[in-house]
Write a structure and sequence with these properties.
Elements lengths: L14 H17 L2 E3 L1 E3 L2 E3 L4 E6 L2 E10 L3 H18 L4 H17 L1 H12 L3 H25 L11 E9 L2 E5 L7 H12 L3 E5 L5 H13 L7 E3 L4 H10 L3 E7 L2 H12 L10 E5 L5 E4 L5 H13 L11 E5 L3 H13 L19 H17 L1 E4 L3 E2 L5 E2 L2 E4 L6 H4 L6 E7 L2 H8 L7 E5 L3 H10 L4 E4 L35 E9 L1
Parallel strand pairs: 1-5, 7-8, 7-10, 8-9, 10-11, 12-13, 12-19, 13-18, 17-18, 19-20
Antiparallel strand pairs: 2-3, 4-5, 6-21, 14-17, 15-16
Bound molecules: nicotinamide-adenine-dinucleotide and 5-oxo-L-norvaline.
Amino acid sequence: MKPYTHEPFTNFEDEKNKQAFQEALAYVQSQLGKDYPVVIGGEAVTTEEKIISINPANKEEIIGRVSMADQKLAEQAMNAALTTFETWKTWRPEHRANILFKAAAIMRRRKHEFSAYLVKEAGKPWKEADADTAEAIDFIEYYGRQMLRLKKGSPVQSRDGEFNQYNYIPLGVGIIISPFNFPLAIMAGTTIAAIVSGNTVLLKPANSTPVVAAKFVELMEEAGLPKGVLNFVPGSGAQIGDYLVDHPKTRFVSFTGSREVGCRINERAAKVHKGQKWIKRVIAEMGGKDTVVVDNDADLDLAAASIVYSAFGFSGQKCSAGSRAVIHQDVYDTVLEKVVALTRTLTLGNPEDVTNYMGPVIDGKSFKKIMEYIEVGKQEGKLMTGGEGDDSKGYFIQPTIFADLDENARLMQEEIFGPVLGISKARDFDHMMTIANNTDYGLTGALITNNREHIERAREEFHVGNLYFNRVCTGAIVGYQPFGGFNMSGTDSKAGGPEYLLLHMQAKTTSETL
Ligand SMILES: NC(=O)c1ccc[n+]([C@@H]2O[C@H](COP(=O)([O-])OP(=O)(O)OC[C@H]3O[C@@H](n4cnc5c(N)ncnc54)[C@H](O)[C@@H]3O)[C@@H](O)[C@H]2O)c1
Ligand SMILES: N[C@@H](CCC=O)C(=O)O
C-alpha cells in the first residue's frame, strides 16, 4: 500500500489536459436529461415525483431527472440498511477498505467525467470542479487507510494477570445529508467515512445537485459495495429529512449544510422517540463568516490576492470563503485599491468556458438572497465594484465589494454565500483580532503578515477551526489540513483528519483475567 498523498490538480495550461476535459464535457452533454432512481437495498426504484436538476448557467438545460423518495420509501430504505448492517458490520475492516481503494481507482480513471458533471450541475469552473473531484478521491483513499490503522484499536495498559483491549466497532444506520457546494467531495467523503467504519447509510443529497450523487452511487456499486450498504434517498429535506432524523432506528446523522438546518437537525435528533435505544450522534458542519486579516507590514500584493481569491472562488459559495477582510489602517487604502483592481480582472460567465474565473450561483433562491444582501450593503457601506446580477439565462452575479463597513454591519456578520465581500478598517493588531472573532461562526481565517509575534498571537487568539498564514483561507487538503469549525460553524468534526472516522464508531473495552 502506497502512503497517502493528495490527488494532484490538473494543469489546464497543458493542451492535452484541456482537450481531455473538453471531451469529458461533450460526453456529459450527451448524457444529459436521463432519469436516475432511488436505490434501496441495491434495487432501483423509479417514482413519479422527480427532482429536475438544471444547469445554473443555463436554466433551460436539464441535467437529469432524479426520482424522489417519500416517507414510505425512506422507511423501506431504513429497513434495508438495518438488515444489511447485521452482515456489513462483520466484514473485516481491510475488506471494506479494499472496496474504497477500488472506488478511488475508478473515480481517478473517470476524473474529468465527474468534474464535467460538476461544471454542468453545480456551475463550477473547471479548476474548482477538478479540485472537488480530487478531494473526493482523497477522502476515499485517506479514509480507507485510516480504517486500516483503526482496525487494531488503540493501546491500553494491562496489569499482571490481565489482558485489556480497546477496539472500535460501528454504530448502526447513519443518515448522510450533504450540501450543494461540494456535491461530490463532501457527499462522497461523508458517505464513505460512515461506510468504511462498518455502518450502513441512507444518503440524501442536496436537491440542486442530485445527479452527481447518483453517478457516485453507481460507481460504488461498480466498486463492489454490497447491496443495502449505501441506500440513495433523494427527496425533500422537510419531508424525508425530518422523518429520517426523527426515526428511532437512526443511530447517527452526518450533516453538512447551513446553520439553520444543522441546528434544526441537532435539536430534533436530541429527542428520544418510542423504540429508540440510544442517544443519536450528530455530526453537523455548518456555515462560516470567514476573515482575511491584513497586517501593516504584510506583502500587499499577496494580501490583495489572498482576499480576492478567498472571497470569489466558486462565486463565494464555500463555507470557507473569505467573505470579509479586515485591513490595518496604515495599509487600508493601498490594499483596497489593489483588491478592487484585481477583482475587476475576474471574468464571469458560463463555466464551460475555461477562461471564466467565476460561474453562476446555484439557483434562483440563492440569486435573490444574494441580490438582497447587495441592497443591504448599499445602505451599510461603500460599493467599490460589482453590484449587478443577471438571471435571464443563468444565475450570474458580479463579484461585489463593499468597503468602509462597520465591524458589526450585517454584511460583516451574516453568511451570504455568494460573491459579496465586506471590508472593515482596523486600528491595530488587537482590534484586528477582536473583529476577526466577533461573529457567531469560527470556521476559517487567514492572517497576512510578516510579523512573527503576530503569527504566534493569532495562533492562540484567532478562534477558528482552520487558520492559515500568508495564503487564502479556502482549499483545505484531506490529510494535510483536517477541516471543521468552532462555534456556530459546527461540531469541528475535522473531515479529512485522523480522528474523523472515530465519530462513526464506538469504542469497546474488553478485560480478561488471565
Ligand atoms: N462546514 C462545512 O464543512 C461546510 C461545507 C460545505 C457547506 N457548508 C455550508 O452549507 C451551506 C450551503 O449548502 P446548502 O445550501 O446545500 O445547505 P442547506 O442547509 O440548505 O442544505 C443542506 C442539506 O440539508 C438538506 N435539508 C434541508 N432541510 C432539511 C431538514 N429539515 N432535515 C434534513 N435535511 C434537510 C438539504 O436538502 C441538503 O441536502 C452553507 O451554509 C455552507 O457554509 C458547510
Ligand atoms: N473544505 C473546503 C470548504 C468546504 C465548504 O464549503 C475548503 O477548505 O475550502
